[in-house]
Task: structure prediction
Amino acid sequence: MLFNSYEFLFAFLPVVLGVFMLLSLRGWWRLSGCWLGAASVFFYGYWVPEYVLLLLSSIAMNYLAGRVISNYVQAGQGRSARKVMIAGVAINLLLLGYYKYANFFADAIRSLSGLPLPGIDVVLPIGISFFTFTQIAFLVDCQEGKVKESDPVYYLLFVTYFPHLIAGPVLHHAEMMPQFARRETYRWIPENIVAGVAFFLLGLFKKVVLADGIQPYVGPVFDHGPSPDLVTAWGAALAYTLQLYFDFSGYSDMAVGLSRLFNVRLPFNFNSPYKANNISEFWRRWHMTLSRFLRDYLYIRLGGNRKGPVMRYMNLLVTMVLGGLWHGAGWTFVVWGGLHGLYLIVNHAWQAIFSSAGRAPSTAANGLSRLVTFIAVVVAWVFFRATTFSDAVRVLSGMAGLFEIVIPEPTEEGMRQFVITLVLLAVAWMAPNSQEVVARWIEARRGTGAPALADMAAARWSFVGAALVMVLLLAVINGTRGASEFIYFNF
Result:
């Protein structure tokens, strides 16, 4: 059930939100939480009913393991708590490894050994990377005594909460479970409804109009097409760079907006990453919760920067390679992660040299740095998008001008692609992002004075009416093309 599908927009969401508000207004808060948890499990089961048992078994195992670990910690039995934590993390990783990487490793062994090993037919459960990482962090925090909440209903909600379950953000128990336990979560808060609808509409527009609008210019070049000339290769690479940007940004906005409708604040996961001046800043802006997880539960655990610059660089490289492998079971993702690891190494080494000089970078230097960072990201995205290593090399060779350097004859379709690319680049580089737009709009509303209660109600209903019209319009546009999946659903 896609966020941009008719069944979600006009059936699932209205029913779930309506029943949630009805139960909440009657003061049945516990039942409201149970309803939201059941609806989230249904949402997952609508996708892949055969994996609902896997999801629920994972939740039960991790919740019970967390309780055992916490009890050991409270009893001062740290060694026993650590053993249970390691066992729990190992089981999570084994499940993730089997479902996500069994085919990849079998193919690698088959290629290296030449043995006629049988194929492994394993279907990847949607969202397994997200709910596995979420629960690994929970177990580690239990062992460190950081977990204070133990309600099974709120734990179920923390893992299955449908706005984030399929494609993130990667949640932390400390920022979610307390929200589900607060009574004010189960109230009618008009400002949250307005903000939630605004975020959702911005995200829906990004997905349906911007991301899906430029998507047709990607596949013909990347998917086993002919050797592209310089302009065609760069056109396709930029098209995918922008498609992925607005697709993931749109999903992130829609997730935040949907959650705000239920008075729950998800962490922002996307903050204008193409405005970054260096690759470190890019990763503080792109998939922010995954970057946080990789930093806190992998990079720092490997030693971080505590063992000198050489080990710091090795830890960065290992972290990013594993981060690339997390995105997909393929050598192209390994190379993509390795490239970003090398980018980070170069960036940290450069900053160490530059900071020792004691000079602040000029405006021109910042502009050049932003451009270099963007080009490096575009090059790496080629491996992220290509289905095979040879396809990636073919597109990169075209971008380097190794096939042909020509200016193609202007066509109507070519000019359309050129204009769309320029417009989307301008939006990504210069326009405020969604959280800035919504925050400014809400502040402007607050700054207009305190209107009468009737005027406020009329304004809210006017907004809701306009929002419904916009949803209908975007749904019609989306329906004419067929509702397309979000790219991060594959990870």
User: Anything to note?
Assistant: Residues 78-113 form the longest helix (36 residues). The mean pLDDT is 87.
